[in-house]
Amino acid sequence: AQTVTQSQPEMSVQEAETVTLSCTYDTSESDYYLFWYKQPPSRQMILVIRQEAYKQQNATENRFSVNFQKAAKSFSLKISDSQLGDAAMYFCAYRRGSGNTPLVFGKGTRLSVIA
Amino acid sequence: DGGITQSPKYLFRKEGQNVTLSCEQNLNHDAMYWYRQDPGQGLRLIYYSQIVNDFQKGDIAEGYSVSREKKESFPLTVTSAQKNPTAFYLCASSIRNGNSPLHFGNGTRLTVT
Fold first, then answer.
1. Which residues of A touch B55 (CB under 8 A)?
2. How many CB pairs under 8 A join A and B?
3. B51-63 b/e with 16+ CB inside 10 Å = b?
C-alpha cells in the first residue's frame, strides 16, 4: 500500500520569508500524481499545486513551487514571500495514475506565519 | 455555481444512534469519496464510489455504510458499531482522470455523546 509521510508536524516562518514543507511517499507504481492541499482554519480543503510523476519539470503556482525528486520519492513544497494568509494545515497527497482512485494523504504540517 | 454540499455543518447524536451525513455534488463527477479527519491523523479514507451503484471500502470502513443510487449523491451512515464516531467528515468528488484533484465539501463535524 502506498504511504505518504510528512515529518514536520509544525513549522513556522516569518512573514515575507521562504519556507519548505517536506513530504516523502512510498510506492512501486511508475504512473502517479502528487498534490499539496491547504486547510485554513475554515477547514475547507484547497488545492495548492499538483505534479505529474512523468514530468521532470517542477510545478509552480505563483508563490508556491515544488521540488519533485522521483528517485528519492520526495515532494517538498516551497512557499516564497510568506503571507499571513498562508497560515494553515498543509497536506501532501498521492494518487495512483489510473482511474478514479482515492488520494492517500499524509498527516499534515501546521504552518504558522509570524508577523 | 457548481460544487459539493455537505449538510449539516454540525451534528450531535447520542451514543447508540445511527446518523446519516449528506453529500451532494452538481459537478457531474463520476467518483465520490468520504474521508474522516482526526487531530494528528490527516485524512483517512472511509469509502469511495467510482460509479453509480458501486462503492469500495477504504482503510477505515468498519462501522460505516454508504449508498450511491444517484450520481449526485453519496450519503454516509455512521452506525452504532463505529467505536469512535466523533470526528470531522469530508466528502469529495473527482472526474475520471488521474491528475484531476479532488474537490471537497465544507465538511460535517459530528459529535457523539
1. none
2. 56
3. eeeebeebebbee
